[in-house]
User: Fold this.
Amino acid sequence: MNGYQRIRAVLNGEWPDKRPVMLHNFMMAAREAGLTMKEYRENPDKAAKAFIQAVEKYDTDGVLIDIDTATLAGAVGVKVDFPDNEPARTYGIRLSSLQEVNDLKPANISKNERIQIWLETCRVVKNHFGNEKFVRGNCDQAPFSLASMMRGPVEWMMDLVSDDVLIFKLLDFCADTCFQFITLMAETGVDMISNGDSTAGPEMISPEMYRKFALSWEKKLVDKSHELGLPYCLHICGNTDLILEDMINTGTDTLELDYKTDIQKVYNLCRDKRTFIGNIDPSGVLAKGSKKDVEEKVNELLDIYKSSPRLIVNAGCAIPPDTPSENIERLIEVTRSF
Assistant:
């Protein structure tokens, strides 16, 4: 089996010849390619080359293509800061009050330069690997998290106890923006779509609020991806124990969760119905831990999942740029030899 075939197998609940690995390593890939984050996010050929070099260096089965977490927000008018050596980040707010939602015009992100750079990076990587490696095109923020960026995190949390009609209207606007990105991404030829919705996790809002203000819109993204013929991955950071069953109910094909979530609970709920992607601690274990630490945590994950094929080994979130390469190599060695 090649990498593409391994990941296809586990998505179908079938056993591969080896456990697949697909890393969330865009910052590390850029660093290892000798690129600043500025160079990486401004040139799709350089960004694609960084991913290709990383995949070939570590012989991973798939590649997760990410640029930053501020591209969609910038495309709908949120101010974005572009540090030379860090990913782009938002600042300020797009809507000074929730009532301004009534004045929003439908967004058209297809001509946005940063969106096009992201898409072209995916296109180049997919054309390079064909059906040898599995390519996951991340589509930035899901509606709840995008709305948080448009209003500002504090203002958004206060909005959630105010006017449901306006909240839903903003979420619909954000969902339409996400649909555009997903549609454009599908046209690049990638093998999977994903979004992140970490602002909607239990570390930020209650499970009841998640069900009211995030779940339905996440499901719409899943449905859109399926409509386009592609499997979908939902990512939420932090401890998601309290909403795991809800996340499964979105219909997502895979869940990407971090180390704070109870892996035994993930296994119990997902082992025969959803593929799990994760969940090694990117900072405490991969970046700052020893090779032995990596070995122990990967073996712990693999041991829990030993009776189910539905696993793709990855970090639980973005891998820091200064992560030692020997720790990544050890993760892959342990995974392939388990």
